[in-house]
Task: inverse folding
């Protein structure tokens, strides 16, 4: 199998990692739907990477995500993959410094993951090789006081991915050997400098059996 000819939606596509993933998918022959919250940055991405299909949406708004799904289905049909790159960093100050404001900002990435994965669940299940992937953090395995809010949100996101994996496993008997959907988590210490590695790893998701990938947690490191 390969990603060639498949449709992949990237949430948070206008970041440096999103652009790298979009470029790699296009080079591999995939159709790419790039979703962001800023129309100007989406327009710039479409100009930078001809062939990208841009969509603006507030992924923390459930109704907006449902409308996004309807637009995507009307434009390109069902999707075969979702790469969730919505994130950000807030932290410092030890436990007393873990403010509610910082937590609310960080929690937006988890809320977006919930909305997007639910809106495109049927697509992923219907595909003979559905894939959904997120980028998490090594702080989940080794939380610190300075990053308590951040680690808690990333842990929640990883838990959600494991729940998706459980749901995919329950449907696997009907998918046939090697087929079906898979939920994959990539962990990084810092994504800066690993954009190309992430992009290559995303492309490779369609070169492995779903049963091998599903529920996996892989740490990405520099060469």
Result:
């Amino acid at each position: 199998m390969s990603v060639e000819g498949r449709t992949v939606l990237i949430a948070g596509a206008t970041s440096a990692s999103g652009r790298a993933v979009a470029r790699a998918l296009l080079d591999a022959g995939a159709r790419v739907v790039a979703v962001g919250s800023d129309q100007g940055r989406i327009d710039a991405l479409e100009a930078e990477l001809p062939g990208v299909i841009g969509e603006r949406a507030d992924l923390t708004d459930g109704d907006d995500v449902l409308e996004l799904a309807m637009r995507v289905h009307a434009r390109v049909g069902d999707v075969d993959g979702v790469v969730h790159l919505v994130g950000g960093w807030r932290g410092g100050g030890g436990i007393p410094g873990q403010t509610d404001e910082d937590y609310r900002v960080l929690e937006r990435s988890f809320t977006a993951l919930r909305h997007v994965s639910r809106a495109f669940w049927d697509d992923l299940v219907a595909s003979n090789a559905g894939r959904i992937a997120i980028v998490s953090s090594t702080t989940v395995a080794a939380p610190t006081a300075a990053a308590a809010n951040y680690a808690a949100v990333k842990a929640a996101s990883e838990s959600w991915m494991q729940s998706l994996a459980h749901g995919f496993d329950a449907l696997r008997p009907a998918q046939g050997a090697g087929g079906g959907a898979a939920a994959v988590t990539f962990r990084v210490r810092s994504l800066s400098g690993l954009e190309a590695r992430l992009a290559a790893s995303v492309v490779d998701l369609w070169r492995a059996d779903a049963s091998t990938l599903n529920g996996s947690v892989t740490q990405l490191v520099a060469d």
Remarks:
- The CA atoms of residues 140 and 151 lie 5 Å apart.
- The first strand starts at residue 7 and ends at 11.
